[in-house]
Amino acid sequence: MTPSDTLPPCSILLLAGGQGQRMGGRDKGLIEWRGEPLIQHLHRLTRPLTDDLIISCNRNQDRYAPLADRLVQDDESGFPGPYAGIRAGIAVARHAYLLVMPCDQPLLDLALLNALRRKAVEHPGQPVMVREGDQWEPLLCCIPTVHAPVFEQHWQQGQRSPRRTMAELGAVALQCDDGDPRLANLNTPDLLSAVER
Predict the structure, then answer these.
(1) Whole-model pTM?
(2) Which residues contact 12 (CB under 8 A, 6 or more apart)?
(3) Mapping DSSP to helix (H, G, I), strand (E, B) and coil, where does residue 176 land?
(4) Which residue positions in the chain have pLDDT lower than 70?
(5) Domains, the chain, ranges and CATH?
């Protein structure tokens, strides 16, 4: 039995709905890295963990659909940001927890994801966010899906910061070392090339 088997079922949301501004407007999830699209690396990591794999994407749905149990997209045009993707994902998630991660962190590993899930179980009702050194990483989190109405309410009130909403819900930190290589955010061509080497 693996540590994953002892944790309650979770839904998983891969965020691939951004504008990719620092990538020249390209769809980040489909950018090739080490011979395959970025999204494929996270798909391989997360697919065994859930029967409810959700991808937030706003274009190229035909490319993403085979990798997901369902797709969600923003209901506003103009790429309103990751809060929109989390809001859409948590609204349809089928399990008690939603594990969220961005598509441009392909070095994440099972130990980190299971640590997030375990911490969420240890703090019932509270979201868990990764904190790298002193820096919160709100797009790498585990959220109890019972809070879907709060995310919707905050969205309607104009909130666009996932970190603020989770802080209001009493978020706890999963502490990681500053510079933890698993948290490398490959969101520019230079970073992609550097880590590939």
Answers:
(1) 0.91
(2) 46, 49, 50, 52, 53, 54, 98, 99, 100, 101
(3) strand
(4) 1-5, 17-25, 78-79, 187-197
(5) 9-196 (3.90.550.10)
